[in-house]
Amino acid sequence: MDIRPYEDRDLRRLVELTIDTFGEFYEGHFRPLVGETVFAHQHGAWREDYRAQVPTLHDPAANKYVEVAENEGMLHGYIAWNIDPARRHGEVEILAVDRAHRRAGTGEDLCRHALSEMKSRGVEVVAIGTGGEEFHAPARGLYSSLGFTELPVAVYFKQL
């Protein structure tokens, strides 16, 4: 598997992968948990949100980067990250791995690559976020194994 910088030709595949990756969370976990009204208010247009967000993730002039994992032209996953050089702070914005390549080290390889790139740019602290429900359990395990410290956070929603 090779990890390489984003190229314009990747955009369609990355949008599709992002929607495929997180569809299970939004439709199978978040919607049933919070109900239709809260879901519609918070993430009712999640597919369109990703179609708008993914094209903005790679902008090296703004210290925003996307790295793609592939093998023989087959997309395995990608990681989007950004840095704030003045604060020496980095953040992983999205990690998405194709279903067929999950639990095979792709996510770990992408994270290690991004962390190395951030360190080479002077970053001292990196943040990464994920959910606390079952869908995100593998991500939490990965981030813990990479030495990230979990910060317990509670977010509440209420329909009025």
SSE topology:
Elements lengths: L1 E4 L5 H33 L2 H8 L10 E8 L2 E11 L4 E9 L8 H15 L4 E4 L8 H9 L15
Parallel strand pairs: 4-5
Antiparallel strand pairs: 1-2, 2-3, 3-4
Helix pairs in contact: 1-2
Nutshell version of this structure?
By secondary structure, the chain is of the alpha+beta class. The protein is 41% helix and 22% strand. Strands 1-2-3-4-5 form a 5-stranded mixed β-sheet.
Describe what this molecule looks like in 3D.
It is a single chain. The chain is an alpha+beta fold and 160 residues long. It has one domain (2-145): Aminopeptidase. The chain has helices spanning 11-43, 46-53, 106-120, 137-145, and strands spanning 2-5, 64-71, 74-84, 89-97, 125-128. The chain has a five-stranded mixed sheet. The N and C termini lie far apart (49 Å). The mean pLDDT is 95.
